[in-house]
Write a structure and sequence with these properties.
Blueprint lengths: L13 H14 L12 E4 L3 E6 L2 E6 L3 E2 L2 E2 L3 H16 L6 E10 L2 E4 L4 E10 L7 H5 L6 H17 L6 H21 L6 H27 L3 E3 L9 E4 L2 E4 L7 H4 E3 H14 L3 H14 L3 H6 L4 H20 L5 H18 L7 E6 L5 H8 L10 E4 H8 L15 H20 L4 E4 L5 H14 L3 E7 L2 H10 L9 H7 L10 E4 L4 H12 L5
Parallel strand pairs: 13-15, 13-16, 14-15, 16-17
Antiparallel strand pairs: 1-2, 2-3, 3-8, 4-5, 6-7, 6-8, 9-12, 10-11
Helix pairs in contact: 4-9, 5-6, 5-11, 6-11, 6-12, 8-9, 8-11, 11-12, 13-19, 14-15, 15-16
Length: 528
């Protein structure tokens, strides 16, 4: 395999490339590691990675980009040390240390005596086919992986060090935006002039609109030292659990950002791959796991900017990666795809509120999760569940069963108030919303109907009907769900008087795809 070197700043020492070539040959030699099998090499625009048996050695490339400077041995050593520190928070078992590569006489040694000529991050090897980008090559990630991933990211953000200077974070984001679009505009060999000029104009305008919200969120502790490079290639399934690795180490300013901007890279990555259900589920489960659900929902007003910029950065990385490939066209086509996606994320879409009611076992939450990716600005509607909000009242895990008193009138009234407040926050942020709850009392249905009058958004109420036996069978089959409904609850609800149902009724006894198609024809009639 031929490895093309990325473009370097002309001011770099011409001897560096030769020195690194020797180091790369040394690390790529099986004899260096006492192996008989080949060493696998992976190239990125910023590093060369060598998979040798049970070990991994990652060497920073001697490159200088506007956003990353590894042009001297001292800077590469500092970057290696920083990589160890920032990644041990999320992947302590992977990151083993930083090792020197030395020269004694005319030979190179790994962690030996002599002159230090290079540094490498030493990692424990995992199955490289287990990174989420490789898994995604086979199709969508699916509910299990996405749900786990949302929890892992939410926990990482809770533990991430908070930074007080919101102004610096906003300035850094603006700088990254301007540098990114400038690089795209400069590459007329890859991008047509009109799309990238439009992207530059729209991104700058989106940032200017968003800046007050950025500063306000920063003042409330939403700016933290994040992963910074959270896309599918930097998450691996290890022992069945998602592990975040390869966080940004070369620029604290880039990694110090709003937690939703950190999340947006993964959401964008899934959207660009046309995995809309995964992207929507990731966002919603992240919100459910969040320590400040209301605050993050309000922050979704920034999501078009965040997704658009992340996609533009994806295009920029594609350009840099193309320099390494022997066959550039597939990579440059991917860069153009990211550019097109960035433009699409910035197109506004009017929000809508959908409420789904019905007795337990009619499939409200399943249908809501199916519908949420299908309407609203990317990655789709915010999904609010009464079951989740009730568990939040008691600060327990979603699957922990609540006592009977948690279903008393006072608690239920609070849960519905919380749902209304969260829906109003999402609509005010320009996000479509889908709320699922039983809505057994007519007053509950009336209250959510009135909400859109205050926000000036269209409302659709859906009422699900299903036979008793179907509902009972579904409830009995539930495992690991937030709902506490039982077969006895299903029987009791069948005796309740719900009053006149004025919402659009849907037969939920049909297969999910049929029910979803019927519901979607009411949500987006012109597109079905």
């Amino acid at each position: 395999m031929v490895h093309r070197e990325p473009r370097r700043d002309r001011s770099l020492d011409g001897d560096i490339a030769g020195n690194q070539d020797a180091v790369f040959a040394f690390l790529g030699n099986p004899a260096t590691h006492g192996l008989s099998e080949p060493v696998k090499r992976i190239d990125t625009h910023g590093a060369a990675v060598f998979l040798a048996g049970r070990d991994v050695y990652k060497v920073k490339r001697a490159v200088r980009f506007p956003y990353m400077d590894f042009s001297t041995l001292e800077k590469r050593k500092a970057a290696c040390d920083a990589e160890l520190v920032v990644n041990r928070a999320n992947a302590p078992a992977l990151y083993l240390g930083v090792l020197p590569i030395t020269r004694k006489g005319d030979r190179l040694y790994l962690a030996g005596d002599g002159e230090i000529v290079e540094w490498a991050v030493h990692l424990r090897r995992f199955d490289e086919r287990a990174t989420l980008d490789r898994i995604a090559e086979k199709g969508p990630l699916g509910a299990t992986i996405v749900d786990q991933l949302a929890g892992v990211i939410a926990t990482a953000h809770k533990l991430a060090p908070r930074r007080a200077d919101a102004r610096n974070a906003a300035t850094s984001l603006r700088r990254a935006l301007l540098e990114t679009v400038a690089e795209l505009v400069d590459r007329r060999d890859i991008f047509a002039p009109l799309p990238v000029e439009t992207l530059r104009t729209n991104l700058i305008a989106a940032f200017e609109r968003a800046e007050p919200a950025l500063l306000e969120r920063g003042a409330r502790g939403k700016v933290r030292r994040c992963h910074g490079d959270l896309h599918l290639r930097n998450v691996a399934l290890i022992a069945g659990q998602p592990v975040l690795f390869d966080a940004i180490e070369f620029d604290e300013a880039l990694a110090t950002t709003d937690i939703l901007y950190d999340l947006a890279f993964l959401v964008m990555d899934l959207c660009v791959r046309n995995f809309g259900e995964d992207a929507n589920r990731l966002l919603n489960h992240y919100l459910w796991h969040s320590e400040d659900e209301r605050g993050e929902i309000g922050g979704l007003t920034l999501m078009p900017l965040f997704l658009g910029l992340r996609a533009a950065i994806g295009a920029k990385i594609g350009v840099a990666q193309a320099e390494l490939q022997t066959q550039a066209p597939p990579v440059t086509e991917a860069a153009r795809l990211y550019c097109k996606a960035a433009l699409g994320f910035l197109v506004p879409e009017a929000p809508m509120l959908v409420a789904i009611g019905g007795l337990s076992g009619t499939g409200k939450s399943t249908l809501a999760a199916k519908l949420a990716p299908s309407f609203g600005a990317a990655p789709g509607a915010v999904h609010l569940r009464s079951d989740i909000e009730r568990k939040r009242v008691y600060a327990v895990p979603f699957t922990e069963r609540l006592p009977d008193e948690a279903y008393g009138a006072d608690v239920t009234a609070r849960v519905y108030r919380d749902l209304l407040d969260l829906a109003q926050s999402a609509l005010a942020a320009g996000r479509s919303v889908i709320v699922d709850a039983t809505f057994l009392d007519r007053s509950e249905r009336r209250e959510i109907e009135r909400l859109t009058g205050r926000i000036d958004a269209p409302f659709l109420g859906l009422w699900l009907d299903a036979p008793h036996d179907t509902r009972a069978k579904r409830v009995a089959a539930r495992e690991g769900d937030a709902s506490d409904a039982t077969v006895a609850v299903v029987a009791d609800q069948g005796l309740l008087d719900t009053g006149p149902i004025e919402w659009r009724r849907i037969d939920a006894g049909m297969p999910l795809e049929t029910t979803a198609a019927a519901a979607l024809s009411l949500i987006r009639p012109s597109q079905v």
